[in-house]
Specification:
By secondary structure, this protein is mainly beta. It contains 4 helices and 55 strands. It has a domain of about 250 residues: Methylamine Dehydrogenase, Chain H. Helix content is about 5%, strand content about 45%.
Amino acid sequence: MLSEPKRRTPPAPQTSTSVTLEKVLGITAPGNRALACDARTGLLAYPAGVSLCFRKAITTLAFSPDGKYIVTGESGHMPAVRVWEVLERQQVAELQEHKYGIACVSFSPNGKYIVSVGYQHDMMVNVWNWKKNIVVAANKVSSKVTAVSFSDDSSYFVTAGNRHVKFWYLDHAKTSKVNATVPLLGRSGLLGELRNNFFSDVACGRGRQASSTFCITSSGLLCEFNDRRLLDKWVELRVSPSATCLSVTDELIFCGCSDGTVRAFSPVNLHFLCTLPRPHCLGADIASMVDASQLFSCRSEARYPDTVAVTYDPTNRWLSCVYNDHSVYVWDVRDLRDPRRAGKLYSALYHSSCVWSLEVRGGGEVRLPSGSFLSCSSDNTIRLWSIDGVNVINRNILSHDLQKVIYVDENITSLLDTESTGESGSEGQQTDQSRVGIRTLRVSPDGQHLASGDRMGVLRIHDLDSMEEIMNVQAHDSEILCLEFSKPDTGLQLLATASRDRLIHVLDAGRDYSLVQTLDEHSSSITAVRFAGQMISCGADKSVYFRTAQQLDNGLQFTRTHHVVRKTTLYDMDVEPTRKYAAVGCQDRSIRIFNISNGKQKKLYKGSQGEDGTLIKVQIDPSGLYIATSCSDKNISIFDFYSGECVATMFGHSEIVTGLKFSSDCRHLITVSGDSCIFVWRLSPELTIRMRQRLADLRPSRSTQNSQNAPQQKVLNLR
């Protein structure tokens, strides 16, 4: 029977108060339709993951004119338009009239209506009297629509997209009828010779220019339509290759373009005013940027991320920009007569594609500051973060949270999210087409080395002091799925690499990572390998192998002691701190607990509260009291390791959670996902206290535990 050591601890906390989302490191705004600013307060809003209440990815959002509400649209089947109260953070209205995802939403300036436009396959444009919860007007649209804007007097709105600019008129006499949906009257803009352009954004004029409508084409034209829907005039933005977004006020037009360019124009006559400063150049050494002047002193041949979203705050005269490397900047544009005086007020940099794995600071890893962790991504970077922004190595001017970026190659294209430009890619999905990126990370027990494995099978070793690469070798024929260092008390310095090519390589870290042995028992992908007195591995062949090490004449050799087969694929494994038990996350959503000494299964319980999906990752906290799991239905759960009782369930990522770790101080759970975001969850004080008490109980008994495990530890205690 699997039993928990006796100890005095407080009672288990309740699920509802166990975990709260403390910080989000990431942004999933696909373009201007998902960036909004409250004109009254300057509050900025953008999506990062899903609606925390309804588990649908947020694709678009907009503030109400008074700033009290925010409307969101979702992707997926039967998506909803939702209205939220900003201060209370509560949903106050919901409309579910679309079937295949919502491309853009907007409040009318009088606050009475919301317009929502579906994806191209949805084909619907709905006007919603949201306080009465009825659709007052609707029609179909066959083109791909990427933007919508209401006129200043709320009498019409304009949609823009692929070869599409259309004016939709509201008949207030008809739309005021209760419980009646009338056909929405639409008239196409007269595009003339520009009819074959992709119109990436649209904004109706304000103030003196209220009768005008402004559009931007991906080919780099700023266009103005008059009150007769006629394309009256246009100017070239002189950008290459594309223009993506615009923000219009009664005094200014800002156009976001490729290569970090933002140009300002006058809405009165489309006269050019200035070009704003660009963000950091791609591949910049973030840690070394400690002075503002460095932001404007990049090399002439440097390349910059494309601007994909801009929104202007007229109260403070700030311009917020999102770039396609998933960075966010806020510029002070109070004096556009001299663009050199446009200063950076705020910036943040995030991963631009799937985050695969993370490593937290452990007890022996003194080279990482307290409260820091590492992450790796398909954007071909390894990043060092600070949880609280307090304990940092060197403060830089670009991010409070990001301390260092390691670029594993010189290909800067992988740093860009090509799906965030409105013209390309599938709607509402973040695809990972190329086979590049860092797949897994592991820090050596002494904190000197960082091992990483990529999706092409390359193993890299970085020195954590200098962050310099000291080894690069093609270790496998396919992506490396797991790395594991042996424990210090074994007397060995080994690194095991496991891959989709069905092989495990055992390397001697003390001898320049020379090959010790290759193990080939698995018949399919190896999903996890762990050292715990023995070497344990599991994989897609539904097998768990237990091996012990012996010192033979020709060197160290691992030999199989137990082989366990189950009827389900085994996706991940972790070992609790006493090294008596290994927990395996399985395709059938179960957690199977194995006794490491004899290879027998001791316990089984559900690792997800849902009825769908498979367990992707399992992670035991430093004390061994709790186990966190991620499921392919995007749920995250925390269970009591010994009883199997669910302590907490969380969700918020819009893609599967690819990695999760407890912080070494037992205060946080950090999760990473295919949506490019990192979530930092704050554990309740009750959970933290229980874990810390257990850690205190374990420390004096570590030596005793090791002697009790002598039969299985003895073989590995060789130098």
